[in-house]
Structures are given as C-alpha cells and as structure tokens.
Amino acid sequence: MYHLSEFISSRFSFTFRNLLNFQSLSVHTHNHTTFKPNLSDVNKIKKSKEDKENKCDSKKIKRKRSDETTRSKRIKKDSNYKIGHDFEAKMAKKFNNNGMLAQRLLCSPGDFGIDILVTYKKKAFLVQCKSQVDPISLGVIQRLNSNVSRFDESMTYILLYDSEKLERPLTKFAEAWVKNIWPDVNILNDTNVIDFIKNFVDNRM
C-alpha cells in the first residue's frame, strides 16, 4: 500500500510533468503563430512580382507603339498613293485640255512604271509622274531608265514632277547620272511640260 506521502509525491510529479509539457506546447504553438518570414525573402518575392508586372507593361507599350507605327505607315502610304494619283489625274486632264490625247495607265500589268501615255500629232510620249517633297533619288532614276528601255526607241520619255512640292527635282547623284548616262530623259514639271511637247513636235515637222 502506498503511503500518503508517496501518493502525494507521485501526483505532484505527474502534475509537474504535464505542466512542463503544456508550457512546451504553448511555446511551440506560440512560435508558430508569431513566425515571421525572412525580410530578404519577402523583398525578393516582391521584386520578382514587380519585375514581371513591369515586363508585362513594357511588352504592352511596345506592342501599342508597334501598332501605332504600322498604322501611321499605312496611313502615310495610302496618303502618298492618293496624292500621286491625284497629280496624275490633274496632269492627264491638262494634256487633254491642250489638244493632246492622254491615257492614264492605272497600275496596268506591263506598264513598267509609266503613268500617262501622251500622244500629240502622232508623236508618243511616256510620262512618269512624281508628286513628292524629297528630290528624286538615283535609285529611282536607274529603275525608270531600265523600264523605259523596254519601249520603242522612237518614244520620248518625260519625268514629270510637281513644281508645288519640288524646287530641286533630283538629288546630286541622280543629276550626275542623268547627265552622263541618260541625257535623253526630259526632267519637266507641270508648268513647262505642255510647251515642251508642242515645241518638240512642231520643230520636227
């Protein structure tokens, strides 16, 4: 049989052990509850998220700029195309109003860049129209020369530019090339082309 003192001692020992376990559990639970992640890790995660968002925004901005640039180029191209055709229509009407027969070649297959075929007293002229603000480059002149070589040599070629937009029709290199390689080309504008054609034909009759 246990003595009272032994019973009390055993009960006290059991109670004390439970108390220690409870405190240990409380401390462990408390530590989990109040756990704070490493500040450096938090900053890394935050920075990574911000970088992804910035990268995404940057792509959207680039895509938007690209779309705007493409749209701007398309509008400019369409505008230049319309301006060129307006100038051709204007000149064709002017030829017809001055006793000539002018036929526009609207992107016909095989026209080789010729915009208007003008006939005056049975003499044919091949007319290439240019309505632009920048002087005509050497590359353009070379391509035009190549195109004209496909036609009959009896035809006279005219490079016709818009005087309202161009004061100097050719670049320096284009001028030198025309002078030395293609002197037969006639560089004219809307103000002097009618007189040129009439004088050219009448002086040869």
TrEMBL record:
- Bias category Basic and acidic residues: which stretches? 48-74
- Give the Restriction endonuclease type IV Mrr domain ranges: 84-174
Q: Extract one GO BP annotation from the record.
A: double-strand break repair
Q: Which InterPro entries match?
A: Restrct_endonuc-II-like, Restrct_endonuc_IV_Mrr, tRNA_endonuc-like_dom_sf
Q: What GO molecular function terms would the record report? A: DNA binding; endonuclease activity
Sorted alphabetically, which Pfam families does this protein's record hold?
A: Mrr_cat
Residue ranges of the region described as Disordered? 46-74
Q: What is the name of the protein in this document?
A: Restriction endonuclease type IV Mrr domain-containing protein
